[in-house]
Write a structure and sequence with these properties.
The protein has about 300 residues and is α/β, with parallel strands linked by helices. It is built from 14 helices and nine strands. The chain folds into two domains: about 80 residues, Helicase, Ruva Protein, domain 3, CATH 1.10.8; about 190 residues, 3-Layer(aba) Sandwich (Phosphatidylinositol Transfer Protein Sec14p), CATH 3.40.525.
């Protein structure tokens, strides 16, 4: 089992959280240890239908994102494994070292975390949706790689504590790409990002999207919950400078690659090479994730 390393934030028994607001029927103070023990016991009681990690670090991810509300944490944990079990095309065969397809897509710099966080410690995840040949790779291929990367990124303490800003870059999107975005696939895709991962989505930026992609963006907004809609920002395909300036209103240029008018090197420079090396160091975690899931017949 891969072990996640957390920052020097107290997680000992003297830390208490008032769960009166989270659980109306449970008003006493509970320690973090009590929360983790409760969730672990709940998992063990359901071993016939739920096959889950139960380390302190893993369970703490779901407690943090739900403000230590036990019932909400259990719902998020079930969703985490249910969406993965329902979508094997995205969550199986993702070895970043031995799977030739995953290695090829990684070299395209299709998606990566940018090196610097914001002043609020939000991490920035860049996805270049047109950065693959749709005659060579399918949307399921690149989505499988993107979720593999997302699984590794979510091991980071900063991801769990402060959350992500996501940039969806539509540069080089062609009709062959767009045809693969069926309503059913878009809905599953949005659900996985929004409901599966125990992280905070701070902002979602749609960058350089063509007018032909308008109906797909409508689907994104329709399937996302309302509070996520309030955090979506659109930088349409007009002039190159205006798009960059629009993005800079939300993300400082010092944090962005030069393709986006930023001060960092190109995405396809040493930045992506270093990122590939870092993700492959955590490849074992991806293999272990494939060994878990839920019995879909028993979980609604």
């Amino acid at each position: 089992m891969c072990r996640f390393v957390f920052p020097s934030r107290k997680t000992t028994a003297d830390n208490t959280y008032n769960t009166a607001q989270a659980d109306a029927d449970h008003e006493e103070l509970l320690t973090i240890r009590d929360h983790i023990t409760y969730i672990r016991r709940w998992i063990h009681q359901r071993q016939s239908i739920l096959y889950s990690f139960d380390t302190d670090e893993f369970l703490l991810r779901f407690l943090r994102v739900t403000d230590f509300r036990l019932e909400k944490a259990k719902e998020r944990l079930i969703s985490f494994w249910r969406y993965r079990t329902e979508n094997p095309q995205w969550f199986r065969n993702r070895d970043l070292i031995k799977n030739q397809l995953m290695c090829q897509i990684s070299e395209l710099a299709y998606c990566l975390q940018l090196p610097k966080a914001t002043k609020d410690k939000h991490l920035i995840f860049l996805m270049r949706l047109g950065q693959y040949d749709p005659l060579v790779y399918t949307i399921d291929d690149v989505t499988r790689y993107a979720f593999a990367v997302a699984d590794i990124l979510n091991l980071q303490p900063a991801a769990q504590l402060y959350g992500f800003i996501i940039i969806l870059d539509f540069t080089n999107i062609r009709l062959q790409h767009i045809r693969q975005f069926t309503p059913g696939r878009v809905r599953r895709y949005v659900d996985c990002w929004e409901k599966m991962y125990p992280v905070y989505l701070r902002q979602i930026h749609f960058y350089n999207y063509p007018s032909i992609f308008g109906p797909i963006l409508h689907l994104f907004r329709f399937f996302h919950c309302r509070n996520i809609n309030d955090r979506m920002f659109f930088h349409s395909r007009t002039s190159n400078d205006s798009m960059k300036k629009s993005l800079h209103k939300y993300i400082d240029p010092s944090l962005l690659p030069n393709e986006y008018g930023g001060e960092l090197d190109s995405v396809e420079s040493e930045m992506n090479k270093s990122f590939i090396q870092w993700t492959r160091q955590h490849n074992d975690c991806l293999i272990e994730l494939e060994q878990c899931g839920v019995d879909l017949k028993e979980v609604s």
